[in-house]
Amino acid sequence: MKRIIQVMLINLIIIFSAKGQEVIKLKDLKTPNSPGFQILDIAPSSIERPTNPKAFAATLMSLTSNGSAIPKNFAMEFSPFWTFKSDSTSSIHKYLNIRKDKSSKNAIFSGILRKMSVSLVSTFSDSTAGSLLKNTNYIAFGIRTNLITIRTKTQSDNINIALSKYSEKVRMLRSHEEELDVLNNQLRKSIIETERLYGILENASSDERKEIQQDYNEEIANQTVIGMEIVSISKVQPNELEKALDTDKEIQNYYKKFLELPVFQLDGAFAYSEALSGNQSDNKRFNRSGFWLNGAYNINNLKIDDNLLNGNFSIIGSIRYISDNVLEVNTTDVFSKTNAFDYGGRIQYTIKDFSISYEYLKREYSNDNSNLNSDRSVGLMEYKINDNLYFTGTYGKNFGEVNTLFTLFGINYGFGNSSLKTD
């Protein structure tokens, strides 16, 4: 039994230290505005450019119309793919919707499960503003996913070339790769030798056992020493490699190719919300639900000035169907259901870590409630502080007829592993 445990431990060392496929840590992951915020009309942007979601994100929003700078709007968003991904699903080719070789085609629908995210939102309004009523808590559930992603043949070919060169460069940057290979080979040979000695030991005479047992113990001790060296090198190596990846200019140029936006993307989202007047569960009522589509046409590397402005430009269209529970005229607690359509667009320009955009949405209710028609017109700025932290600011006019001035500041935190295989 002791021998079996020893061999199992040594084999585990080999498995964990063996050279595998190269991986890429995606840097453009960002959990977008939650559908729950968007159905309540309190998101920084109601028209979202399709993006790649983080594994988990938390969002804090502060609406100045709430009369306090303390954030009272919270969202949590979860992407199942990053939690449950396996070796068979974690290919960067599948995630970025690009073909692996010239004989295959781009999988335009592959983002449906990989880019799905689920969110839960809570917000409290202490004043009537836009679509929110005074002294009411709102809870919303939302789900979004990518339906269609289209890349050009040139885009796919360029990304594949960058992936190949990236893998080669990473192997060069691994300073301990050869040393690990030598140690792993020594370990395998030692294990084979212990197996041989063990077989002889079982059939050896009592006079032969002492010498064979000594050789066997020496091999086991040798395996332990080699294993400790492998573990020691493996602990240091990832940190050194990560530093090299962050500073190597070639690697950064390859990353730019990975981050290129597809020519066209179509996202779908659904959200459902309830309202609790006075923050009491007994006063719970249906508030609003909706389904919408956002389609984006993207232009990469749009140059206004070679040295100053060289970023990505997006034109995004949106259409949304809403089932709304509106307050009847001259009442304070009588609501009736009605339907509405939102339609509009957004233009967005992104350069490095900064993004600026403008969006306009028109909301039209059914004929009986046409007096509720309104629109939303806002400007939005967003700054990427690091790969996991975004700051947003929005100013403009929101939906509704009361307190429609919309000023919002928000912080989006992203968490979780974002590595994919290059093969």
How would you portray this structure in words?
Helix 7 (177-203) runs antiparallel to helix 8 (206-247). It contains nine helices and 14 strands. Strand 6 and strand 7 (284-305) form a beta hairpin. It has 423 residues and is an alpha+beta fold. Residues 1-10, 12-20 and 64-71 have low confidence and may be disordered. It has helices spanning 2-17, 35-39, 80-84, 92-95, 111-114, 153-173, 177-203, 206-247, 249-258, and strands at 23-25, 56-63, 73-78, 117-125, 136-150, 264-277, 284-305, 309-327, 335-351, 354-365, 374-386, 389-397, 405-415, 419-421. The chain has two domains: 31-151 and 267-421, monomeric porin ompg (Porin, Beta Barrel), CATH 2.40.160; 169-253. It is 32% helix and 38% strand. The chain has a twelve-stranded antiparallel β-barrel with strand order 2-3-4-5-6-7-8-9-10-11-12-13. The chain has a two-stranded antiparallel sheet with strand order 1-14. This is Porin family protein.
